[in-house]
Amino acid sequence: MIKTLKGRLALIYTFLFTIIALTVFFYIYQVITGDLNIRIDEELLDDAQEIVAIFESSGLSKAAEEILLEVEKEEAETIFYRLFSPQQELLASSNLEYWRYLPALPKHFPRIEENIYDWQHVPEHNFEVRSIYFGMQGDHILQIGVEPVENGNLFILLFETFSIAFVVLTLMGAFLSLLVSKRAMLGIDRLRDSFIRVGHGDFTQPVTIGQEGEEIETLIDTFNQMQHKIQTLVEELHNVTNNIAHDLRSPVTRIRGMTETTLTGQQNLSEYRETAGHIVEECDSLVSMVNTMLEIAESDAGVITVIPETVDISHMIHDVADLFLPVAEDKSIDIQIELPLEPIQVTGDKSRLQRALANLLDNALKYTSQKNQITLSALAYDTYVCICVLDTGIGISEEDQKHIFDRFFRGDPSRSTPGNGLGLSLVKSIALLHHGDIQVTSVIGKGSCFQLTLPLYMQCQK
Ligand code: ADP
Predict the structure, then answer these.
(1) Quick check: pTM over 0.70?
(2) Going by fewer Cβ within 10 Å, which terminus of the chain is more open, N or C?
(3) CATH architecture classification, 5-153
(4) CB under 6 Å to ligand 1: residues?
(5) What is the DSSP string of 401-451?
(6) From ligand 1's centre to the CA of 442, what distance in Å?
């Protein structure tokens, strides 16, 4: 039993090739032999009609003479004539010395003017004898027969040639089939090696795309995309795990430190209260971080159920601006709002969209120094709305712009500012959840512009 697909394919190809070659050979053989046999029969009929004509016009003796004349001595081994009476007596014949093993009596009794052909095996003859039996007047029977030696030899030659050609072609066919199926499977072999590598945790090497055909190429391409995605996810998971460990350690260490001081030190009630307050704050920020992480993960995995509602973008911008007014006033930052007169509405999760905008405004306030300005604006286009949060703050370097939407990323200039590097990741997840996107343009020292685009009529993920 052949186990490999290559072997099985090669076997099937060889089998089909053999069947086709056999059919072609058989057909050619039939056509050639059939044609040669027809020619023999025509010649026999011609000869018979000649003798019959003489018999009918000039009688038996003339016909017998003609028979002797027809068969020259050297021809006596290729053709014979026998003329039988209605009582099956041999009345006349050619030289029958070579044909002595012919049955004495005619084998067929055709009616007058009728002719019958047959093949007959005659002892001591290499090939079967082809005869015509012709019904003559007075129920006489004329038999003319030949041993088609040349044709027979030709058939043998044909058969031998075909047999050799068949064996050679079958071997070549088997070899070529093996080669073709091996070549077709090269891509699968490379894929198998890659699967083994992936099984050992190596996602780095993509499978090279060869010339094995569209199906295999598509398969390899899909595999490479899948491998790349897994690699990205694994790297992200690795980074996230490192970041979580790092970001959890600091607050937990701080909480432990405060608790230890409280346990060991001599403090009065108000100091205890103050420390407990700090611990509660740290715990709150930890819980908020964990909740944000969970929300991002759920949003990215598409397991969040969004109950779509109509959201008025102008209202939302005013609400969020009002929420941050005290902070803005504290820093003497002026929040400008620029909105078109006509209302802009989208369908989506109102509280999540509000949260996304709040995160953007919170960042703008965090990274903009005192007495500066922030502008919130919205513009509706054909199919989408663009909400823009423009600040005149510290700006973001081009290198940092590539990473600010990654989880836990914090730019160097913002290390001194409170935060956990999850805000923009959450904004991005919410934008994608609503089939929208978030982009940034920024110049160091001059400010940043965050553009949140949302489709005007959205189909939210379920
Ligand atoms: P966090 O603000 O908690 O650090 P975010 O995910 O909201 O986390 O932002 C990631 C980083 O992007 C910030 O650490 C900061 O470096 C940069 N950033 C975000 N918004 C602004 C902004 N408006 N101006 C300058 N830098 C910004």
Answers:
(1) no
(2) N
(3) 2-Layer Sandwich (3.30)
(4) 363-364, 367, 391, 393-394, 396, 404, 409-411, 414, 419-425, 448
(5) HTTTTSTT---GGGTTS---S-HHHHHHHHHHHTT-EEEEEEETTTEEEEE
(6) 12
